[in-house]
Each structure stands twice: as structure tokens, then as C-alpha cells.
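Moderator note: this is an archived Q&A kept for reference. The question asked for a predicted structure of one protein chain; the sequence and the answer are reproduced below.
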Amino acid sequence: MRKVYPDAKAALAGLLRDGMTIMSGGFGLCGIPSALIEAIRDSGVKDLTVVSNNAGIDDAGLGLLLQTRQIRKMISSYVGENRLFAEQYLKGELEIEFNPQGTLAERIRAGGAGIPAFFTRTGVGTDVAKGKETREFDGETYVMERGLFADLAIVHAYMGDTEGNLRYRKTARNFNPMMATAARVTVAQVEHLVRPGEMDPDCIHTPGVFVKRIVALPPGYEKRIEQRTVRRRDPAAAGAGSENAAA
């Protein structure tokens, strides 16, 4: 079975339709499948429900799909960096289903494991629990959360082989591995594409059985940084350090 496609557009061909549910991996702008997101934007598909920890920023990531009004509903945990997201929500143009971050992760993991629902103490007594079933266990109240399963998952991996085995790097392991298991079809973009057998089996995070299509990113592919924070250099301290070094 051929899994490698020449570009993101080809990798998504025949998979997209209006009204579908898409899981999009990553954390902030780290480990997001940006090439696949751009291909979804260019396809014009609309009325999407998107499951993602966040909604990117105004000009990157899922923010691109908000610009084109292709997203109808977001199932998310953190959306504080996207002004357009807030504007559309306050105008009633975007539906939001907020989740505590750990609950969102567990809902996705449960969906991939075939678990339709689970109980958690997180959110009990808050707006998160409104309209949901609650139950007592050992004298404590728990709220029921449903597992999540999508039509399509798009993920970003540091390395992958032509059989679909994937390895993620550092923060990119947030949400990508669990989303890869929780959809009817998973499409992965990879920074480094290798042949079968070139990856250490102990370093494979997503087995190829979960991945149906792969696209290799071009050399020099830009990875955006959401917020670059650096410490200002104190000229006096720097000078004193030089003097001490010279002494």
C-alpha cells in the first residue's frame, strides 16, 4: 500500500468534505501540521468541526482557517493567543466547546482506544459540567466526558518511514500521538522521511498501522515560534563580567 504522497494537497485528495470533524495536532505553534492546514484552507472545504488544543494565531496554524471562515466549531482547551478566534466567538460566528486541557487529551485518547465515555472529577461544579451526567464514586462526584473520534486527523512528526511509523520530538508529542489513533484516516507530515528499518523501533511513538498517508516536508521548512521571549542583557553586568574574565 503506497502511503507517501508528493505534497499536502495530494495527501488530502478525496478525504475532505463539508461538515467533517478534523483533529489537528500540536501545542501552540509547536508540532502543528501547518502544511496540511494550508492545503485544507486551499481546498475551500467548510463548516468544519476542529479538535485542537488551540486555534493557532491570527496568521498561522488554524488561524488561517478562521480567516476564511471554514471552521464552524472548535473543541479546544486554550485559545488565548488568537484575536480573530475571540472576535468570531463573541459575534456568534463560531461555536466553542471548551475543555480542561487534561480532559481534552483524555477524550482523544479514549476515542482512539474505543472507549465511548469516562468519568473525571475535573470540572465538577463548574460550567464544564453543565448538562452532563454526574455520578458518585467512593463519596466523590464525577462528571462523564465522551471520547472523541474524528473523520480525519492531521499530525506533524519529526521523522517517519514510508510505512507510516512516526517519531515526534519534544513538545510536538503533545496531542499528535493520541490524535493519530483517534480518526478514521490519519495523514502525517514529516520533517525527515526514511526507509523502513532506519528508525529505532524503541523510538517509534505512532505505529504505521494508524497512518494512511504521509507527506515529506521540503528542506528549510519554516517552523514558527508563537512567542519569542529572551532576557535583556544588562550592559553593566556584561561589562563587569568581561573585566572579571580579563582579571
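Archived answer notes: Residues 58 and 241 are 41 Å apart (CA to CA).
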